[in-house]
Amino acid sequence: MLFISDDQVAQSITMRDAVAAMRALFEDLGRHAGVIQERVRVHDAGVSLSMMGGIHTSAGVMGAKVYPTVKGQFNFIIPLFSCDDGRLLCTVAGNALTRLRTAAVTRVAADCLRPGPGRRVAVYGSGVQAEAHVEAFALDGYATEFRLCSRGDATALAEQWQQRYGVPVTCADAADAAAWADVIITATRAAEPLFDGKLPRPGTLVAAIGSSKPVTREVDDEVLRRASMIVVEAAGQAAREGGELVMAGPDTGARDKLVELGALLPRADTARAAGDLLVYKSVGIGLEDVALANHIYQRVAAA
Length: 303
Hints:
Blueprint lengths: L2 E2 L1 H7 L2 H16 L4 E10 L2 E10 L4 E10 L2 E2 L2 E6 L5 E6 L1 H19 L5 E6 L3 H11 L4 E7 L5 H11 L3 E3 L2 H7 L2 E4 L18 E4 L12 H6 E6 L2 H7 L1 H4 L11 E3 H4 L3 H6 L3 E5 L4 H17 L1
Parallel strand pairs: 1-7, 8-9, 8-11, 9-10, 11-12, 12-15, 13-14, 13-15
Antiparallel strand pairs: 2-3, 3-4, 4-5, 4-6, 6-7
Helix pairs in contact: 2-3, 2-12, 3-4, 3-12
């Protein structure tokens, strides 16, 4: 059996490859060429086990992402199967893959909703996903500058990311960054909103990607109230898992504004014409992992 490690994942695929693979997946979902298995979680003795996946019909593969959560840490694994004969094609370590796919899907959404180049991007957070989003949004000149918002002093980190990705990165406080940005990306584990929803300028894209739990939220009701649409990967899963949506007040109209990314891609001009704020809320779907695992499998198997 072929096992593909995190190191092999990192060596076999780039962020640019991941963006292309995720765009192709959501185009397939827009054509109903795939089925999603929503996340299932079980909990006991202070730990949890989660599973989500799906069938990528057009690619001829299916699989699942399985992972424990212990002391707040994850460890992802993805078994990939053939739709032709049910054969186990490979098992892919999912930590490096998850880093890529989450940021790649956000970039796909941004290219649809608030296309570049030359955008000012605020990133809230200083962890793995914050850096992955800087990498994804540095591609092809999408971002001309990043403002980094972190709970601690992130000056050294900003300098490191600027050197690594070739785009200016400076630190800012939460309020100033929200008022300055064309695109706001929240990649934190915050339980409460990170900025006042009155601050972003009309036309700003707010991408809330840090939480997939119904009891936490990164943006407030004002952001949802101002949103002309709320783009999600899968409406049912987002409505159940996205804390912003679960806790949204009735006056936000949030549930009525949900639009799935796959359905939106063929009519991106509609999204670009929408007024006030645009929101992308990610919770992560297992079919993203299956599709990217297959892309990696094809690369490794052909090497």
